[in-house]
Amino acid sequence: MNKKTFVVLLILFAVIISCSESAVNEKGSADIIRADLSQSEETTARLYPLLEPVDFGGYEFTFLSRTINDPDWVEWDHRDLTAEQQNGDVINDAVFVRNMKIEEKYNVTITEIVVENPLVETRVMQSVRSGDELYDVVCPHVTQFPPTAQDGNYVDFFTIPYIDLTKPWWDQGTIRDLSIIGKLFILQGDLLIMDNDAMEAMIFHKGLLDDFDLESPYDIVKRGEWTLSKLIEMTRGVSQDLNGDGVMDIQIDRFGCILQADSNVSFLVSGGEKICSKDENDYPIITFGNERCYRILDKVSELMLDEDNVVHLHRYEKKFGIYNEQVKMMEENRALFSWIRMRIVERLRGMEMDFGILPLPKLDTVQEKYITHMNPHTGAGIAIPMTASNLERTGMILEDLCAESRYTLQPAYYDINLLGKYTRDNESEAMLEIILSATAHDIGYVYNFGDFGMTTLLRNGQNLKSDYAAPFASARSRIETQINKVVSDYEKLGD
Q1: Would you list the DSSP string of 44-56?
Q2: Distance between CA atoms of residues 28 and 214, nearest Å
């Protein structure tokens, strides 16, 4: 899925989606999807895989997905794989229409088995060990697939027939960032919206912005001046001890910004740095530890440690629940900015005051572009278990599902659901284009080489620690050792 290219489609669709909500209710969401797509045919050339219909004799094509048994994480269950029937929800109905088309083309039934997290990886390993072909496609968290892949449980996507990774319905950022020595065991694309939901961004409260006569962040973004320093500057001066008890209370008082433990990794990537990148041979290399990297983390620590102006949600996770309190603060006009994963936008639909969406800040104005970190803790991908006996069938169905999703599920998600239903202004559409234009993973964080990313970076964010240099110096040899181990394991898989 080339998301920058896809934004052009979104903007074209946006004109169609400007109809009133009452019209949507009268006509039915699935009908609207079909009508909108047929109208857009005249202005948008569609690209499809050149795959002829094949009769697979009623084969049950099965996804294995995970659920999280936690009310505060209910949004991270899949809603993009299967739908039992049309029910008027645009996402559900787009999935239903997509699946029905592919089922008819290949004479298959698309099904989903849902297990509680983290049993997905356990089920896959058990299935491969026993040789049972129970699942065609697995949908792990991005951070959870590496150990399973290293043990030889997944098929390299570069070897699967009929899957064309150059096509725009496959996410090029994932292919670029998460392959190792030319092998790719997890993939994201238009088939899913879980990766869209996991994109990280910022939101701001328009009412508070007006109350304090602050400049529109939209204009700042457009000038290329939306930086960590600007976020810090605008955050200060908004906070207030509303009940006058001398204590800044997350449930009572007003703060300039809401962050989470993930925010430091997020801002590191949006500032143009990573724990690890890759060399010309697709070999992971350490890139953490340069002067620019520490400049970013110094700014992040300045935010994280400013307890008079910044709320760190993970400090209150066990007491309040992260997302509920975040939404509550925005709804009660008690936060100007908040770091988010895009899924949280739908929780904000009850706000009376308007809010806007922004890309993550850059480090400085010298940095050429805004970069969107794809959160690997909540984002999912697809993987193919080694027990898949008919890779031609798997490749055909996945390629067609993903391509069809480009014209059904993705427009439903962005144009009808996100742009049309939850955002409040035209500027947010322009911001979404920027957010989509450059997405990235940090392979060092995803693989947690040397236990540095998940321990030092994430835990420093949780525990409000600002020392990164000493832990990195201590971890460097471990990072290198684990990189070599992963590369060696992947090389053996080719034997």
Answers
A1: S------------
A2: 42
Q: Could you tell me whether strands 276-278 and 284-286 are parallel, antiparallel, or unpaired per DSSP bridges?
A: antiparallel
What is the per-residue pLDDT for 228? Answer: 97
Q: Which pLDDT tens digit goes with each residue over 4-16? A: 444 434 433 333 3
Q: What is the 3-class SS of 271-314, one letter each residue?
A: CCCCCEEECCCCCEEECCCCHHHHHHHHHHHHHHCCCCCEEEHH
Task: Out of 17-26, 296-305, 398-407, pick the least confident.
Answer: 17-26
Residue holding tokens 């999280």?
68
For the stretch 486-489, contacts whose Cβ atoms lie closer than 8 Å and that sit 24 or more positions apart, written own/partner, are 486/146, 486/150, 486/180, 486/284, 486/447, 486/449, 487/180, 487/181, 487/283, 487/284, 489/150, 489/151, 489/152
pLDDT tens-digit profile of 111-142?
999 998 778 888 999 999 999 999 999 999 99
Distance CA 472, CA 327 (A): 35
What are the beta bridge partners of residue 254? 240
Position 166 pLDDT exceeds 70: yes
Environment class of 386 (CB within 10 Å of its CB; exposed 0-12, middle 13-18, buried 19+): middle
Structure tokens given for 165? 């990774």
Nearest to 407 by CA among 85, 38, 23, 16: 38
310 phi, psi to nearest 5 deg:
-125, 130
Mean pLDDT of the 483-495 span: 91
- How many C-beta neighbours within 10 Å does residue 105 have? 18
Strand partners, 340: 201
332: closest CA among 390, 227, 249, 405? 249
Residue 379's Cα: distance from chain center in Å? Answer: 5
What is the average pLDDT value for the chain, to the nearest integer?
86
- Does pLDDT of 453 surpass 70? yes
Report yes or no: 203 and 471 within 8 Å, Cβ to Cβ.
no
Q: Are 311 and 257 in contact (CB under 8 A)?
A: yes
Higher local confidence (pLDDT), 24 or 311: 311
Structure tokens at 385: 């278990």
